UniProtKB/TrEMBL annotation, chains A, B:
Residue ranges annotated for the Toprim domain, each copy included: 81-176
Cross-referenced InterPro entries: DNA_Rcmb_RecR, Rcmb_RecR, Rcmb_RecR_Znf, TOPRIM_dom, TOPRIM_RecR
Job of this protein: May play a role in DNA repair. It seems to be involved in an RecBC-independent recombinational process of DNA repair. It may act with RecF and RecO.
Signal peptide: none
Alphabetical UniProt keywords: DNA damage, DNA recombination, DNA repair, Metal-binding, Zinc, Zinc-finger
Pfam family, one: RecR_ZnF
Protein name as annotated: Recombination protein RecR
Length: 207, 207
């Protein structure tokens, strides 16, 4: 693409560095901004700048936060001996939305992925192991996504903490609520049979 | 969505104001930026800010430009009596890429669209009419997209300039080069038959 303006070219280039946004989409977005009031572009630029400059990560769970200790970790009503290990803030938001969880989180910041050059030292695993060593955690729930990388990460953490006295669990895999059996993949359906639950418990969950 | 950080929420909100970017995509983009070096976010914010602040529009053709008179309008080798009317800079870039056009452009900045609240006064039509009145234009090529809005805009401009002595034309509509006839829509195929061209001319265009 040849641009008639260096400013435009530069804005399009920087926009196209975002994942899933090619040059054409970037140009469309930038032209849209040019048609909107100048204040909108200013707000976007400021929001991105101050996010990057002032963002903090909770000193306990490593979630994104505006303060040193995030709202969840600072909440006295939360069960601090129950910790759910997740990949990033999106998982925290998803689980919070269920209103079914009253423990704390530990945000790893990604998963072990040799293909992408992400090793254990790039994640907050060491801090999690320290917490376990201090004996403050009663149960650890692994809630990583069900991929090879997720399983690897779970297993790596498990090896480091298995000698300590605590319960470990993973979230249940199975047929989604409302899904038809015939459309489920074999592995999920197989797991949902192996890990079947007493009928009485399922009644309780529905209520 | 409930966010643990106002900074994050704000950045996601501003990002989701862009067309075609919902809250989830915005969150993905913002989290991506957080994982990249801080300099990248700074460059994006700066590029957008200075684009909006310092961008100029060519005083003659209204194309986006860094200078008062854009490169195309300032080029002495260009035929200044031939003007191609287009919607925005993307059309200029597309036509320039063909290397088949040696005239100037007139960028309208959109098309007349009552549905979107865009009237003739929101476009640079008045400036085009002035140019025609000054008698500097020998031929006007309408190269708007072939939609109802595009046709309306063409017709609106045509009505304003029809009493002046100049040639008007529109770009040819027809079967795309390399396309199979059987997959073409009837309207396009019909037009390509009505506006058929002498075989000798088509030989020249191929060479």
């Amino acid at each position: 693409m040849e641009f008639s303006s260096k400013l435009l070219e530069n804005a399009v280039y920087e926009m196209s560095q975002l994942p899933g946004i090619g040059k054409r989409t970037a140009l469309r977005l930038v032209l849209h901004l040019l048609k909107q009031p100048e204040a909108q572009t200013g707000r976007l630029a400021n929001a991105l700048g101050s996010l990057r400059k002032d963002i903090k990560f909770c000193s306990n769970c490593h979630n994104i936060s505006d303060v040193v200790l995030c709202e969840i970790c600072a909440n006295p009503k939360r069960d601090k001996s129950l910790v759910c290990v997740v990949e990033d803030i999106r998982d925290v938001m998803a689980i919070e939305n269920t209103s079914q969880y009253n423990g704390l989180y530990h945000v790893l910041g990604g998963k072990i992925s040799p293909m992408e050059g992400i090793g254990p030292q790039d994640l907050t695993i060491q801090s999690l192991v320290e917490k376990v060593k201090n004996g403050a955690i009663r149960e650890l729930i692994f809630a990583m996504s069900s991929t090879m990388e997720g399983d690897t990460t779970n297993f790596y953490i498990y090896k480091q903490i298995q000698d300590h006295e605590l319960t470990t669990s993973t979230i249940a895999r199975g047929i989604a609520v409302g899904d038809e059996l015939e459309f489920a993949d074999e592995i999920t359906l197989g797991r949902s049979i192996i890990h079947r639950i007493p009928f009485e418990s399922s009644l309780k969950a529905n209520g």
